[in-house]
Amino acid sequence: MRKRTISIATVAAEAGVGVGTVSRVLNGSDQVSEATLKRVLGTIERLDYRPLRSASSLSKGRTDAVGILVSVITRPSVMARLVGVIDVLSDAGLDAVVFNVENRAQLERHLSSIIDQRRVDGIIAISLRIPKERITRIRKLAIPLVLVDNSLPNLPCVYIDDVAGGKMATEHLLSLGHRRIGFIGDNARSDLGMSASENRYAGYLMALEAAGIGPDFDLVARGPHSSEAAAVLASALFELGKRRPTAIFASSDTLAVGVIKEAQQHRLKIPDDLAVIGYDNLEVSSILDISTVNQPLLESGTKGASMMVSLLNGEIAKPHREELVLDVVPRGSSLGIQRNSPTKLYGVVEGPQGLQILQGGEELVS
Amino acid sequence: MRKRTISIATVAAEAGVGVGTVSRVLNGSDQVSEATLKRVLGTIERLDYRPLRSASSLSKGRTDAVGILVSVITRPSVMARLVGVIDVLSDAGLDAVVFNVENRAQLERHLSSIIDQRRVDGIIAISLRIPKERITRIRKLAIPLVLVDNSLPNLPCVYIDDVAGGKMATEHLLSLGHRRIGFIGDNARSDLGMSASENRYAGYLMALEAAGIGPDFDLVARGPHSSEAAAVLASALFELGKRRPTAIFASSDTLAVGVIKEAQQHRLKIPDDLAVIGYDNLEVSSILDISTVNQPLLESGTKGASMMVSLLNGEIAKPHREELVLDVVPRGSSLGIQRNSPTKLYGVVEGPQGLQILQGGEELVS
DNA sequence: TCATGCCATGGAACCGGTTCCGAATTGGGA
DNA sequence: TCCCAATTCGGAACCGGTTCCATGGCATGA
User: Fold this and answer.
1) Residue B82, min C-alpha distance to chain A (Å)
2) Architecture (CATH level 2) of domain A63-160+299-325
3) Which of A112-121, A188-197, B246-255 has the highest mean predicted lDDT (pLDDT)?
4) Looking at CA atoms only, how far is residue B115 from chain A in angstroms?
5) B63-160+299-324 matches B162-295 in fold
6) Would you kindly state where each structural domain of chain A is located, as residue ranges?
């Protein structure tokens, strides 16, 4: 009857050393002589031994895992940030434990279980507003917290100035000579507090005011975050007759798509009858040639995760705040420039069965 | 000087009982009298005590976490499945540890660290082919493994018959009278083995053969999974002159988008000059009115996760296999039917600042 | 009244690592 | 040759739960 599981004690016995020595070897301590190091490593190899995560977690007092709280994960922009976060954490050897938060109750539940049970060493919140009382509790427990796509005083965060973004988008339309500029955005939600759309709206108002144009609330509309809703709202704006907007700033590309679809229904030519600019620079905006405001989404994720890694390594002293840069991507929906050819260079070759574009570095199967 | 951390011993001492009793209370054992139960619960409440995850993991011998291996996570279809998985796991009180796998090396690294360190109780692989030797190792260690969007004998899996799907899509085009039907798909990749596109291709060939049409490899093209690549490939097909296809089956909606964009460049009318059908029923296909094959993506995730939960609870005896149903969603890109109005009913109301569509059940901020 | 058995309970042993203290060995200098 | 310091190492104590066994109390039946 063999021993069931091989533990550190098994290795120690087998190698003829103490458990302490094996542990030192595992953790790369320099307090081990060359000879023993080799012997222990050999034994580990031979027994195919790996230390158990939960055991080392318990004695080390940390989990080597980071909790990621994500607001409605299905949104492409949120997704992109998440990918950035996961990649960096993974490279740092940290587990990424993902929690999808659809509403306030879920947020509370996840937070309390994460925090109280100490399941993770740190928390990254993406596009999410954390209740104040939770923040203080997290602070008291000294659990690192990093905000991505959000900003709070005295907390490390990677954020984007949505007000400036809204201003830039509106200014783009103003620079093209538009004066009647509409705004279509998300409902302001109190529960999860994704305030991005409202901030962009604020920027929109600022830009108008700076241009000496008073706000016309008839040109402003909000609804759920979907193309269909945006289409309905756009339709309402189009029916204003000669008072209808000549340009629309949609607070996200998803909404811009709905606006454009609806414009086509109304036989409005883009951009001559109606100029449109979105926000996020999602893939769909490039496909549909929609002008937009580019956010470094992936980068916001990687930056945030890097901060977390530094925090866990005790490398950052005080809260670090990083603001990422935005830029307007003018495309056909506002400029009307001739659509350009695919930017990437693709070489089509004759494949075994039909045409083929080979991918760089990829191994292909015949 | 107060005690630093409150442990189960603290609670036991405070409540005047043994640690065993507290543990029993925590785990809902019925071996505790009403009176002590109340007293212990009170103490727990008063001290705001929560058991430490890693400690219970160590002694219980399980982590209450599930590893999720995901192939290129950015693909919308993969994403949708992931969301389904996370939601179910979360409801079951299991942590979802996500690993993004971009290439074979990463897959190996993640797998070995997951498996050897026993970081998780089970593994869910989404749209991923696991190397045989890994499978046998996982089997030997008795770690539950569930495949989503993939199928292997003797393993629990949730899969979709891509061959049948490819056949359905092609038959749809055939039924509209098309005879010269092109195929645009992904490169067959050996490393991660996402064979979906190739399987759909197989279905395409079967449908053609059943209709008495021999395959014409001049109408077949493969490339990277992007709209741009698809556009380039489509362009090549369009330049075949009178031998050009009158219809194209794109193995995913992303590719179909590229095909349609390119058709517009070539002044081909959709669907009169060219009918197109995609695959996946992504949001973009509905926006652009592209016919497609609907896969229950979210459902595949939830089903897979449910299997995992059952497995971990020891409820399933032998490998359970579930095949989900597909259906063709005919839209304008093949039928040319008048575009329909938004399906959802939205009521536009006058909001505090502009128009507004209220969301069901959502709390709104003024 | 005493034997029997069940139920609630305390607490030691244990899960598998890490850490720290003390001991053993070695090397160098006096 | 002896002593001291540095280096290497063994192993007990510990992290904070869970589990199981032994124990004490109480009720039941004879």
Assistant:
1) 10
2) 3-Layer(aba) Sandwich (3.40)
3) B246-255
4) 10
5) yes
6) 8-51, 63-160+299-325, 162-295
Residue A54: which of B120, B186, B101 has the closest Cα? B120
What pLDDT does B53 receive?
92
Write the burial class of residue A23 (CB in 10 Å: 0-12 exposed, 13-18 middle, 19+ buried).
middle
User: Residue B296's pLDDT band (boundaries 50, 70, 90)?
Assistant: very high
Q: Please state, in angstroms and rounded to a whole number, the distance separating the CA atoms of residues A58 and A66.
A: 16
Amino acid identity at B324: L
What is the DSSP annotation of A38-99? HHHHHHHHHHT----HHHHHHHHT--SEEEEEEESTTSHHHHHHHHHHHHHHHHTT-EEEEE
Asked if the C-beta of B33 comes within 8 angstroms of chain A's C-beta atoms, the answer is no
Q: Which residues does B299 contact at the CB level (< 8 Å), separation at least 6?
A: B84, B324
pLDDT of residue A289: 86
Cα–Cα distances (Å) from B143 to A97, B174, B312, in that order, read 19, 46, 9
Q: Name the fold adopted by A8-51.
A: 434 Repressor (Amino-terminal Domain) (1.10.260)
CA angle A184, B329, B265 (to 5 degrees): 65
Tell me: pLDDT of B269 over 70: yes
- CATH code that applies to domain B63-160+299-324: 3.40.50.2300
- Report the 10 Å Cβ neighbour count for A200: 28
**3-state SS assignment for residue A123:** strand
Residue with tokens 């830039």: A168
Please give the Cα distance from A100 to A124 (Å, whole number).
12
**Domain A162-295 architecture:** 3-Layer(aba) Sandwich (3.40)
B contact residues 37-56, partner A, Cβ 8 Å cutoff: 50-55
What pLDDT score does B72 carry? Answer: 81
Closest CA to B249 of B288, B207, B295: B207
Q: How far is CA A98 from CA A71, A125, B49, in A?
A: 11, 10, 24
Cβ atoms B150, B124 nearer than 8 A: no
A31 touches strand C (CB under 7 A): no
pLDDT per position as a tens digit, B310-328: 999 888 766 788 999 999 9
